[in-house]
Amino acid sequence: MSKILVTGGAGYIGSHTCIELLNNGYEVLVLDNLSNSSDESLKRVQTITHKKLEFVNGDIRDRELLDKLFSENTFEAVIHFAGFKAVGESCEIPLDYYDNNVYGTIVLCQAMKAANVKSIVFSSSATVYGDPASLPIMEDFPLSATNPYGRSKLMVEEMMGDLFKSDNDWGIALLRYFNPVGAHPSGQIGEDPNDIPNNLMPFVSQVAIGKLEKLRVFGNDYPTVDGTGVRDYIHVVDLAIGHVRAIERLKSNKGVQIWNLGVGKGYSVLEMVAAFEKASGKDVPYEIVDRRSGDIAACYANPEKALKELNWKAERELEEMVTDAWRWQSQNPNGYAS
Ligand code: NAD
Ligand code: UDP
């Protein structure tokens, strides 16, 4: 059986990916320092799948620990989720972001190289496209960064390109996620932000459950359908399945391969709010406030490359995204601490 090292596997996208890996017959070892998660997510992954995974509480920057894990296990590949992800925070503590996201990835790749494990799937982001000149976004669009978080993703992408140039044995999948939302349909695992959420959907969920008073909609004067920002929201289970397909692709294809993982369709903030109200039966009061600095008007993917090369396509519609998000929120009002 093939074994996959999943860094950051206790987090939101990682835990959903563990389910898909286990259900597809992979063995899984999660390395996570629980800086933004709880190992309760992994207990629930095992309950949902009726399968076991291994968990090591540790840091990707700990080279000794990595060497130990690589010597004790035979990994087919690494899926690398571990990192910090809050744009605003990255402007306040940029060095911490470069340390965790860039230096952490360097240490991981050095350990992989030493162990001759040269297949990696990396969590990149649509943020690397900056403010795109046109839509939908294709993988060969120009790249740019407007904040330290985005720059850390861009740096890692470029670093991995150099790594492959130096050694053609590497197989590197750069997955550029659009906006992951929703939760596992069991309602047992989902997104569990530590503080007040930065992202739209967890914020909306917490307003609906009564933990937050109202949503602040950042701007209604964008050139979009109703003036509010448009994004390509993708169900986290679809996203998770994309990682399994990428692992399968790396078995026979080396090189740096890049895929957009999105639905290919954009929804506005107010459309998301309306869909959530319908699914939950709850009101989501909101007020329109100024634009958030750094936000772009609209962003959605052209996901055809992933369909062609990974045989992957997002299957879950908006209604399923918001219904599953609400099931998770209402069954676990305080996340994993509930
Ligand atoms: P998350 O915070 O829920 O998961 C990240 C996990 O990594 C957490 O469990 C955290 O404890 C762990 N971690 C952080 N630093 C670590 C370290 N040094 N060593 C070991 N573990 C560490 O975030 P997520 O939403 O699941 O995102 C996963 C990845 O996808 C991140 O790299 C993120 O930047 C990227 N991404 C996320 C989104 C999104 O909207 N959620 C969008 C695009 C890209
Ligand atoms: N947004 C909002 N209020 C919030 C959070 C987000 O109006 O409290 C808007 C934001 O301006 C953007 C969309 O919702 O148009 C998605 O934002 P999010 O932070 O979830 O993802 P981003 O695409 O910025 O990474």
Structure in words:
This protein is of the alpha/beta class. The chain has eleven helices and 13 strands. The strands form four sheets. It has a seven-stranded parallel sheet, with helices on both faces. Strands 7-10 form a two-stranded parallel sheet. A two-stranded parallel ribbon has the order 8-13. β2, α2 and β3 (54-57) form a beta-alpha-beta unit. α7 (200-208) runs parallel beside α9 (269-280). The longest helix has 22 residues, at 94-115. Bound molecules: nicotinamide-adenine-dinucleotide and uridine-5'-diphosphate. Residues 7-8, 10-14, 31-37, 59-61, 81-83, 85, 100, 104, 123, 125, 177, 180 line the site of nicotinamide-adenine-dinucleotide.
Q: How do the helices and strands follow one another from N- to C-terminus?
A: EHEHEHEHHEHEEHEEEHEEHEHH
The count of β-strands is 13
**Can you list the strand order of the major beta sheet?**
3-2-1-4-5-6-11
Largest sheet: 7 strands, parallel
**Distance from first to last alpha carbon:** 35 Å
Tell me the number of helical segments per DSSP (H or I, 4 or more residues long): 11
Beta-strand residue percentage: 15-25%
Structural class: alpha/beta
Radius of gyration: 19 Å
Percent of residues in helices comes to 40-55%
Average pLDDT works out at 97
Runs with pLDDT <50, length 5+?
A: none
Write down the overall geometry.
globular
**Small-molecule components bound:** nicotinamide-adenine-dinucleotide, uridine-5'-diphosphate
